[in-house]
């Protein structure tokens, strides 16, 4: 595969941008080799600057659930942008967006728009700390909540694949306020709350862990956390930046029937534009400035063009049956990959949620972060490159979930499974 232009761009980029990229996992450090540079994208495909086409299972890390460059989303953007790119005063689309989120996610009685998932999560824990008057945050090993200081403790994929368990630059005085426990371990959570429950402002969790591959909650686990938080007066925060609007229209909280106190969103609600949001109980959100004293702000928050892209994307996925069909296709893909691996005699398993999946070079089941880490990552890396060479772009890390969009039709999935057959044979 010719990647001359990508190679030349990466050489230039490395001179001026740390690692040549504006977000670490893009650099292909964990899988080896060099990233390709995108020229454009359409539907399920990315097209690089050398003209190579890839079936894309990254989808810009989640936002592109309706496929790339969807005509309805592009039309909403172009129709909106001719009126101006940013106003610095309220615009009508912000109200529509707040109404839409509150309607789709009933636990969000009020919402605030921000510009990224990171902003959403760090704002949510500020609310948790401000509202409870407590300082401790609980998170889970392998969960990533953006690069806010309090979260860069055992933080999953990006940090982990680079071998950085924590980040320099995070004061230990702050990191000490973050307690980290094992996901899906009922007793670990009970024990922590028994010990320091009265110090805990909030517990933040990816209800389905997409940053340690794709780990699903055990039966009753999220309910257990809900009960612990309620009992100890801590807030339950669902980080639905990945799962929101994807694993069900109403996100993981709808899929599992749990009501968190606060939720964070990103990715899909921006339709590919930089957007995040946090929301939750009215009594908590009313404490945010200017209605309350907890400060949080943003020059470009609620940007009209970004709101238009997000609303158009929500229109597309609110069509009845959208998520059922996305789930069906996820199963077709994962069943196909498992069958191909079996035929090649390779230990391999998958985990799935609607529109989201994990690939593991080991036997199943995978239910914990330890299980996920036991995947043969060297083998994954060879598989990744074998697939890339056949025009299939998987997440460039053994610890990132893959994403499907509604543009991934029978043809794309069949092509992917065929490519996997050849790739498994190549790496066997
Ligand atoms: N939370 C989760 C669950 C995420 O997956 C991510 C990003 N992958 C973030 C927060 C941070 O979002 P952003 O990259 O937009 O800051």
From TrEMBL:
Enzyme nomenclature, EC number: 5.4.3.8
Record note on quaternary structure: Homodimer.
Species for this entry: Lysobacter auxotrophicus
CDD domains in the record: OAT_like (cd00610)
Domain of life the protein comes from: Bacteria
Catalysis: reaction(s): (S)-4-amino-5-oxopentanoate = 5-aminolevulinate
Name recorded for this polypeptide: Glutamate-1-semialdehyde 2,1-aminomutase
Modified residues (N6-(pyridoxal phosphate)lysine): 267
